[in-house]
Specification:
Two copies of one chain form a homodimer. Chain A is mainly α. Chain A is built from nine helices and no strands. Chain A has one domain: Tetracycline Repressor, domain 2. The first copy, chain A, binds a DNA duplex (18 and 18 nucleotides) through helix 3. Chains A, B: Keywords: DNA-binding, Transcription, Transcription regulation. Chains A, B: InterPro entries: Homeodomain-like_sf, HTH_TetR, Tet_transcr_reg_TetR-rel_C_sf, TetR_C.
Chain lengths: 197, 197
DNA sequence: GTCTATACGCCGATAGAC
DNA sequence: GTCTATCGGCGTATAGAC
């Protein structure tokens, strides 16, 4: 692997582990073994390196979201996504960035984060609409809202898990959300929409 | 106000705004107007000052949670708490700390955060049990789990709002959670529990 | 308690040789 | 592309006078 790629990969790890403000160029050099000259040859500033690394972390999250987009029963896809194994104590590579003061204040660094969440929201809305159409979810629930609710459950689950140093609360949060969705099935199988085609 | 108290208050603000790692003793001095000598007279290290400030921030959050404990209809209390006006773009004073690498790694700094969430969880479980008992929530929902789910909605809502630089997603997340709770009311008014006494 | 002075290391580069 | 050397400023204190 060339130096440039190695730097980006190392910065990606450090962004996940320590965030942006608390990750120094020195730390990147030491972990990657790439020298000072190389670092500043490939990236004029720490921020430029971080931006590349952040885009990488954003891209790494998209395969997961594709659980939501896939074929098959909408509710099953929701369950698959919510129950996907995650290392709750490490937190979300992307969501973490929102709590870094230097990222929050920098529209350029924040932009990929915003885009990633916007994209996830689209996938969530789609699958939730399909769940309503399939009669798996009451049709008086707003998919746009609910999408934010479920995204928040994941992001907030990480916060709870880290606070307790225990993945339990994260699991609880996800499972509880699933329980609620199931409990919000229409009382009577909805006959306005037909599942046979 | 004496210097000591002024230092704690200033550090509390900065912890909220910038977190721990990115807040320097210098920043505290400059905002508070307290001199170098005084700072290190009252607090031997930055960490000691932060610990005091963090306890203060934790304490400041308890009045809000009391919305949940109060008298009155359980579901109404849940709504009051979820709909409480919050500055979504500023995030949670306490939850924010979980994303600071230097706090995460320091059991002493993390402890007050864990305690705060544990206490909030107790209040949530209580009000959710009461909602079940009052026939406002299906009795096959687990209050312990659901408590984590709802706490996560709030914490995660902040993340979404900051990512989009827009309080909308936070409001959506909260309102969506409330919608789900309402949709998870028992299908038929529950007659095993009597509300008249 | 508060002040000013001093210290040492890290941060985030920049310079210039190879 | 990569190396080593150098830089001004800040972070996090410590020392000692008042």
């Amino acid at each position: 692997m060339d130096s440039r790629e190695l730097l980006v990969e190392t910065m990606s790890e450090l962004l996940w582990e320590r965030g942006y403000a608390d990750t120094s160029p020195r730390a990147v050099r030491e972990r990657s073994g790439v020298g000072q000259g190389s670092l500043y040859h490939h990236f004029p500033t720490k921020r430029d390196l971080a931006l590349a690394a952040l885009e990488r972390n954003v891209a790494a999250l998209l395969p997961a979201v594709s659980d939501l987009d896939g074929p098959g029963d909408p509710m099953a896809r929701i369950e698959a996504y919510l129950m996907r194994p995650r290392d709750a104590l490490k937190g979300c590579k992307v969501g973490r960035m929102t709590q870094d003061p230097q990222v929050r204040e920098d529209p350029v660094l924040l932009a990929p984060v915003g885009r990633a969440f916007a994209q996830a929201h689209v996938s969530w809305v789609k699958v939730l609409r399909e769940a309503v159409a399939a009669g798996e979810l009451r049709d008086d629930l707003d998919p746009e809202r609910l999408a934010h609710t479920l995204m928040a459950v994941l992001q907030g689950g990480y916060v709870l898990a880290i606070a307790q140093q225990d993945p339990g609360p994260f699991q609880d949060a996800c499972t509880g959300a699933l329980d609620l969705l199931r409990a919000a099935a229409p009382a009577v199988p909805d006959d306005t929409h037909h599942t046979e085609e």
